[in-house]
Amino acid sequence: MVDSNISINLTNRKEYNLTDFTNVYSRIMQFDKNKSAYIHQWYPFVEGYSKEFITSIIDELDYKPKHAFDPFVGSGTTPLELQEIGIKCSSFEVSPFMHKLATVKLERSYNQNGFQNALDAVCHNLNGKLLPIRNIMEPPIAKTIQQRKGLDKWLFNRPVMDGILDIKHVICKIGDEKYKDLFTIALASILLDVSNVYRDGKSVKYKKDWKRIKIKRRDVHLKFVTVLKETFLPDIILLESKEIVVENKDLCILGDVREGIKDFKDDSIDLVITSPPYLNSRDYTDIYIAELWVLGFIKNYDELRSLRNRTIRSHVQVKHGDIEIIDSQELRNVIGKLSENTKDHWNKEIIGMIKGYFLDMKNLFIELRKKMQSEKKIFFNVANSAYYGVEIKVDMIMAEIAENCGFKVEEVRKARDLKPSSQQKDLIDSLRESIIVLTS
Ligand SMILES: C[S@@+](CC[C@H](N)C(=O)[O-])C[C@H]1O[C@@H](n2cnc3c(N)ncnc32)[C@H](O)[C@@H]1O
User: Could you give the maximum distance between any two Cα atoms of the chain, in Å?
Assistant: First the structure.
């Protein structure tokens, strides 16, 4: 599997084994591979990894894990794939939308009958006379979510928002909570399709010629029903035929892992597979703004602010203030270089974000060390980043932090080369995405 071994020396301090795993990982690190995979396909999630990444790890372990953990569950790839293999997995997710997505995918008690009844009722209600929907259900209050006077840009045209509200209204009438949630995720899966935007890098961007988009209210209904029939129903039929070995849904906790992990029993975890938000100033509440507002996970700007404050410090949407720098020579070098030209920074929270990110990771590793049984493995997927031509070797700094917290760094596996952002591409050729392999 390993192509080459390169030993790299970090500012004369620590040496970690950098192994080239690009031939193994370049094909399986993107969520793209899950696009037509059973249940994983219910929602296209750009920031996730594939189910093959999980199975590749289980295949290489020399022990059978009994209780795995994913502190940053996102769309639920880790607990879902482990559930398929029959391995218990606890997880955390801070975003209410992501948490709903993951738990809907982890639910095991759907059946064809119940699904079909809910679908028939939804189709019946949507096919009737169009209702004065805005008298029944209000659109979200977010400023640029829908077309209104005085705005020159908006995410959803008026007829599209009406179609979405119709669907939300019929979903409300479903009696069984689990189908209510499942159908909400089906609605989430078509939202960007019917919007004026697409997801790109740090946020959403407007589609080319978006002002010419003409999607009617009934077109939105049709897309929703089609995805339920063509994508969800076949998976429900398959799911019903499978034997249930473990259920990871109730072990998927909504909340900030920095706090929640403290309540875990010591020595209770024997495998960690995870991918924290990358240190690329991407704010998930911005990227998933349409889902959060439209599906009612966020109702006002105070809730949005509070959610941003609970996320790992990988973005500049909150004031980070003065943060202590953790003990890492490599990190000190980076902060030193970046501090030379702070007046040019596009945002004055960048240095706070970088310090805060590694402090969050250090605190997480301290807790993980207590919660993990000894001689068990952690697979930590991260990517390096760059600001103003200064590369931040996140993988090496993270390895150093983990080692200082009592883990043994087995190796840092190079997974892929990622493209730097448009501002950095003239200064940095590529940024390494890696898997840090640790033993407790
Ligand atoms: C890179 S994504 C994980 C993707 C996941 N591996 C998958 O395949 O779907 C990182 C996730 O961490 C979540 N997150 C950020 N801060 C968090 C926190 N403090 N506690 C728990 N989850 C957090 C984000 O909302 C995001 O969904």
Answer: 73
